[in-house]
Amino acid sequence: MKKVLFTDLDGTILFSKNSLPKELKVENCVVAETYRNGHFGYMEKELVAFLQEWTQEQLFIPVTTRSTEQYERLADCFSTFNLPFALASNGGNLYRYGRLDLEWQAATKQELRKELNQKELVLELIQKMIPATSIRKIKDSDELYYCVLTIERIWEEKFILEVNKELAKLGWCAYFQHKKLYFLPKALSKERGITRLKEELAESAHYLAMGDTEMDYGMLKQQNQYLYFSGFSEKNLETTTYSLEKIHTLLEG
Description:
By secondary structure, the protein is α+β, with helices and mostly antiparallel strands. Helices cover 32% and strands 27% of the residues.
């Protein structure tokens, strides 16, 4: 039976120098991308080599909240894999062999038309509820969601719940991740994108997943097996730490 791996990227298999797992050293990595500020994104060398071979027979499908622009920065590295599909924009955009599928994109916007009509109200809510002194930049990502870059601070759980309560009235939700806040239509999820893609694949397979944040919960729980690289979980998910050995076991077990 074919194996299909759906995996998050940043914090799961792709890292900045500052976010490298303690088990991983820069000298054991390849540069997967170069940021505009001159910094790099890294992947473990042995994992890249393993995936280059594994993808000749099995399906490796990145599933990321990165915008299309951010995902395409990985084109050189990912061109070394057999990569028929990749989901960007939290499932809102699909790449087929590296090319953006405009029909998928149009279908996403049609499916989310009610929520996307609320975008201006969501922006007003962001500007009202998130302290201006904390905001560095608000990015409209692929005309589907907002990514708010902020200064480093701790967001209280009560405040996060209040923001989500207001967003729910508009069919949106928010995820607070340190210096990045994501505001998305509730139906724009990784698990929804995967469900759409599975309908197209229409084949029996053993589904696997990897992720590292609460934005990956739904994606992980809908597969046969998963690895959740996190120090804590609020959704009764089994957690672990990053290691190539664990990834090998998941993919070859």
